[in-house]
Amino acid sequence: MADRVPMTKAGETRLREELQKLKSEDRPRVIAAIADAREHGDLKENAEYHAAREQQSFIEGRIQEIEGKLSAAQVIDVTTMENTGRVIFGTTVYLLNMDTDEQVTYKIVGEDEADIKAGKLSISSPIARALVGKSEGDVVAIRVPSGTVEYEIEQVEYV
Predict the structure, then answer these.
(1) Domain map of the chain by residue range?
(2) pTM assigned to the model
(3) Backbone torsion region of residue 137, taken as left when φ is above 0, otherwise alpha when ψ lies between -120 and 50, otherwise beta
(4) Quick check: helix, strand or coil at residue 77?
(5) Which stretches of 106-154 are DSSP H helices?
(6) What fold, for 78-157?
(7) Cα 90 to Cα 73: distance, rounded to the nearest angstrom
(8) Does 5-76 carry CATH code 1.10.287.990?
(9) pLDDT by residue (tens digit) across 36-46?
(10) 128 within 8 A of 108, measured Cβ to Cβ
(11) Do 119 and 132 touch, CB atoms closer than 8 A?
């Protein structure tokens, strides 16, 4: 059996919604496009047919990929856990850069949910790996391309 993949409740919901859309809207639309293109005659030189088949292949591949991820998912809902002030998967962490006094906020999420612009860090990122297991008030030295940056963990939220 494949390893379990950590995922937040919101990440699981998004994947399930995408899977539902692929199966109920996109797949039937492409099947209809293929049938329509077949009616146009010679399939060897029918660009619409080939484009529709390529899109169908992409959709079927994405469906398999999502189903695989969901079957291996370990959904972690931190809102049901007691807030111990410790950084774990799914928590939101408020950090203070010790050098610049700049504050940053990150939510530690699964790899598929990561979006640095939205403040969502993948659990496998160097910053998240350095933070996991630490507690509020701890100072964490994180190696970044430009050197080492020290952050103080100001607050950990289980939301």
Answers:
(1) 5-76, 78-157
(2) 0.80
(3) left
(4) coil
(5) 126-131
(6) Chitinase A; domain 3 (3.10.50)
(7) 14
(8) no
(9) 888 887 777 78
(10) yes
(11) no
